[in-house]
Amino acid sequence: MPNSNGRGTRQNACSAPCNNALSADITRIYDSCADRDCLENLEVVFPEQDAALVETACSVKATNCSILTAYVDMDEVSYNRGCYAVECTYYFLVDFNVYQAGSGTPDAMQGVCTFTKRSMLYGASGEVNTFSSADTAPLPASVTAPVAKVQAMEPMVLGSDLVNNRRPDCVQIPEAVNEAMGGTIVQNTGEQKAVVTLGLFSIMQLSRDVQVTLPAYEFAVPEKECNADNDSPCDVFRSFDFPIDAFFPQNGGNCNVCGCDTPMDYEGECPNTGNQNGRPGRR
Description:
Number of domains: 2
Distance between the termini: 57 Å
Number of helices: 4
Mean pLDDT: 81
Low-confidence stretches: 1-16, 274-283
Order of helices and strands: EEHEEEEEHEEHH
Number of strands: 9
Largest sheet: 4 strands, antiparallel
Strand content: 35-45%
Helix content: under 10%
């Protein structure tokens, strides 16, 4: 006898709230990797007016670092179908305090350093051309390659120093980065240069747009009201919970002789179960 409500059948394997299937375009991640890189002794270049101060400085200290921009490139690996070499070049903006001999007040300045990371990821093989009404170019390019995406946290400054500039490197700085620094970035040609060591957490991934079938529920109607917050700053502050854990740190839960997360009663005994000294607990 057929099942009248459809439950348990392959055609309707969902629970009661799921009545239909929905076809949707999503971005599927085919491959990804996460890295924790220690970038040692990256050469830093400065605007022209600051570079002269670095060359005569007796010490430097990097105080902060942020990602100014990053360029992501991708090439298909010819001998391994479906694999792509993803290359990401970061440009870091580093804040420095530069100290001159005989002066206790440092000069604050900013420099740029760069790092290139390369990784091989699987992105599958696409054999179709994709065109969309959203394309604005006269001849939109077909999309057959996956999309490379890089996510990175702001770098952590691990160290900085002045070193002998025995063999100057040519630090490639794009025009957009140079303009962001005032258009006066110069290469290190003096007797010493500043270097910085950074810690970087990053994720690389390759993804494609694919069509899948998903269980469809009811429409997602927002339940939150769009109320304007007209409270005063003090009223908002008073609504916050007091940060007890910040003043009294917990050590992995509320642990005592009764066990974790089991408080003792007012007489110092374990409720209902008896304490670990062999005395029965009071009821």
